[in-house]
Design a protein that fits this description.
The protein is mainly alpha-helical. The chain contains seven helices and no strands. The longest helix is centred in the last third of the chain and has 22 residues.
């Protein structure tokens, strides 16, 4: 008996994107401690691999590194922040590859959520305004 993988449709990809965005918009430390977070990252890795686009290779590599790091228990805020920042930038760029406009919008939303989460991970005790961010980056 052979196992043939049935390709996911856009609705399934969109549901995974929505789930990932939801996880990122919540307390990431709390989300990472939940049993299902590992599955969220694995589905995300599989979805990106399913696209079969060499331009997305770095996203897969970073997601695998993120997954491995979260399995380690203690979060290195600097490393996770760097990975999520790069994932955010690359995810925003990857939105152009989505053929369905609804999927493209979700990919864009995911990239923005990653960038926001990266800032929160790197500065967990700071709820800053854009003006404070500018001041901190120029300081």
């Amino acid at each position: 008996m052979s196992f043939n993988k049935i390709p996911k449709d856009d609705t399934q990809h969109q549901n995974h994107l929505d789930g990932a965005i939801n996880n990122l918009n919540n307390d990431l430390q709390e989300e990472a401690s939940k049993a299902g977070f590992d599955n969220v990252l694995q589905r995300w890795i599989e979805d990106v691999k399913d696209v079969n686009n060499p331009e997305l290779h770095q996203i897969v590599v970073d997601l695998q590194a993120l997954k491995a790091h979260f399995n380690g228990g203690t979060i290195d805020h600097k490393l996770v922040g760097q990975l999520m920042g790069r994932l955010g930038d690359n995810t925003l760029k990857a939105a152009v590859f989505a053929e369905n406009p609804n999927t493209a919008q979700r990919v864009t939303n995911l990239g923005e959520a990653l960038l926001k989460a990266a800032k929160q991970v790197q500065n967990p005790n700071v709820n800053s305004t854009p003006e404070q961010d500018l001041k901190n980056s120029n300081g």
